[in-house]
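Apologies for my clumsy wording, but are you able to produce some protein sequence, whichever is easiest, and the tokens describing how it folds?
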Amino acid sequence: MAHDEDHISVMTAKFAFRATMDAMANPIGLRERRHRQTSTDIRDAAVRLAQQRGWYKVTIEEICVEAGISTRTFFNYFPNKESAIAYGPSDIPATLVEDFVAAGPAPYSVVLAELITLAAHHLRDKPPRRDQAACMLELAKTTPGVLAAFLADLERFQNHLTDVVARRQLVRPEEEMPALISALALTAVRSGIERWSSGEPKDADDTPMPYVERAASLVNSIFTE
């Protein structure tokens, strides 16, 4: 079992290194950076207002003023205010997806470990603030509209991960294993974020990644024990 875990760790570290090198060699363009920044600005504004005034008192117009955008711009990014605050995994850059698929079929323990690294890419590149994540998760527990938006985003992302796993393993997306692997990967990421957001900072580099990595190790023990 120890040998299997060591092998998985090495393979995951190699994939994470390739992903980092790819991001450095292929920086996102100006338009994409602006898109991401505007999306972040809207989410930040929604969280600040929710923390200050309570979610039900916040309007889309107030979010727009706080973020310094027009209402039209808001609706280019989000269909409603619930979606604006429902922080979920961001879309995976196409280059990272292609690297993952190009690695070819592998034992599912390796695929799962690398998929978790892939799915958590946004937590390394642009992690959320702890208070923002805690606010969103609390709203998801108490506000049906926010929960629905959060779950819809997770479902969309999980379907994408399922397709990516199927492409790598050369199987059909509707087969059971790709869906199971993607669900386990998303569970690890979500569990890591939830545990991180409910705790206290341990160092200056306060990100969810150590928590996600621990969750990934626990999930992968299913295959190695």
